[in-house]
Amino acid sequence: MESEAAILALAALAQPTRLETFRLLVRHEPAGLPAGEIADALAVPANTMSAHLGVLSRAGLISSERRSRSIIYRADLSRLQALVLFLLKDCCQGRADLCEPLLAELAPCRA
């Protein structure tokens, strides 16, 4: 991931509604959620949610797919992985023991 792409993704997540939207979509992988359900779950007006979804989409953090009359949004987990790897690329200066607490926090995700 290039610095510009990372900055765009981080900027998109640097707003409470967009961060919660992204986290909600991550929890609903792989099925995703329709835009209306996202708006309802976060108690955000539909037009406001549409703007937030647009920002997340332009940052490459989510994708959308039309299904009949609904648009289903999904978190792009490969983009999330690239962002996290970009942030941690120089972590620990080659000393894996310094990163162990971080990796331990991720262990429940693998279960």
TrEMBL record:
Superkingdom, taxonomy of origin: Bacteria
Keywords, comma-separated and alphabetical: DNA-binding, Transcription, Transcription regulation
Molecular-function GO terms, alphabetical: DNA binding; DNA-binding transcription factor activity
UniProt xrefs under Pfam families: HTH_20
Domain HTH arsR-type: 1-95
UniProt xrefs under PANTHER family: ARSENICAL RESISTANCE OPERON REPRESSOR ARSR-RELATED
Designated name of the protein: Transcriptional regulator
Species annotation: Brevundimonas naejangsanensis
